[in-house]
Amino acid sequence: MISAIRIHLQGIKTSLAVRMAYRADFFISAFIMLISEFFGPLLTYLIYSNETSLPGWSMYEVLLIQGIFLLSKGVSFPFFFGMVWNTLERVHDGTFDLLLIKPRSILQMVIVTGFDSEDLGKLIGGVALSGFALYHLPRPDLYEWFNFVALFVVSLVVMFGFALILAGLSIVWIATTGI
Question: Name one Pfam family in it (predicted).
Answer without folding.
Answer: ABC2_membrane_6
